[in-house]
Amino acid sequence: MAVKGRHFRGLSRKSSNSTLLFAVFIGFSFFVLILLAFGIFSIPFTSRGLRKVHDLSSISHNAARRRDDDGGRGDQWAEVISWEPRAVVYHNFLSKEECEYLINLGKPHMKKSTVVDSATGKSTDSRVRTSSGTFLSRGQDKVVRTIEKRIADFTFIPVEHGEGLQILHYEVGQKYEPHYDYFSDEFNTQNGGQRIATILMYLSDVEEGGETVFPAAQGNFSAVPWWNELSECGKGGLSVKPNMGDALLFWSMKPDATLDPSSLHGGCAVIKGNKWSSTKWMRVHEYNI
Length: 289
Ligand SMILES: *[C@@H]1O[C@H](CO)[C@@H](O)[C@H](O)[C@H]1NC(C)=O
Known about the structure:
The protein is α+β, with helices and mostly antiparallel strands and 289 residues long. The protein has three helices and 16 strands. It has helices at residues 2-37, 96-106, 142-155, and strands at 77-83, 86-91, 111-112, 114-116, 123-125, 132-135, 166-170, 176-179, 195-202, 208-209, 212-214, 238-240, 247-251, 265-267, 270-272, 275-283. It is elongated and about 90 Å long. Residues 57, 220, 222-223 line the site of 2-acetamido-2-deoxy-beta-D-glucopyranose (NAG).
């Protein structure tokens, strides 16, 4: 009798334990369902996870996210915009102060831009590039050094592989026809070898036009969320709209170290406003200054 009673008590505890366990399980399931319903978290295996390489429609439209009242650089985030060419936009790469600082450094020294003559390796005047510009020296002051260090951290290319920053100014009607940043001559690759990547930093907003356009990019260009804001020129390829503080990084060479013809890019004519930008070209090897 005593044995039986003990057995009965034991069984009752076991069954109440499993009831409790079941209740906890049901409660937890409801909790998860509620979180999913309110979008507090999502299962990663969605259409975003299955996104195709050349699908440009899932790029988010972030222009409105910049906070003007932010004294610093605001939210920073990187966005892959294309895999062919490999191109990334890093939002709020520079602060407003850094943009203004670079413009003021360049302003007194602006000269009509030239292009490199591939036959002679010399700079020549050109109708394909109508902006004006100037070169800064690598590491010329503390602000420049800070920015160059940031570029190295972001691109994984050491500061020593970079050419000096170039400051560029495009007024209404000024543009840069599509071209490659890599060289097709022997002369220009003697110091530092081929150009591997370019980072283009927008120092100002542009009211209309002035996009950076990649006419040879793969994908459906018109699927980008900012399509309706682009100029005619901007609609000729995958385009990035200038946005003060943003940086566009693209690669002139593929991961297999061959040149990437899809890196063809141009600066669309400014239609309204002024475009200030800064470019750094990075080399395969150390670049001596
Ligand atoms: C390209 O994208 C646009 C906008 O999403 C769409 O209307 C159009 O049908 C697409 N074109 C092709 C060829 O997929």
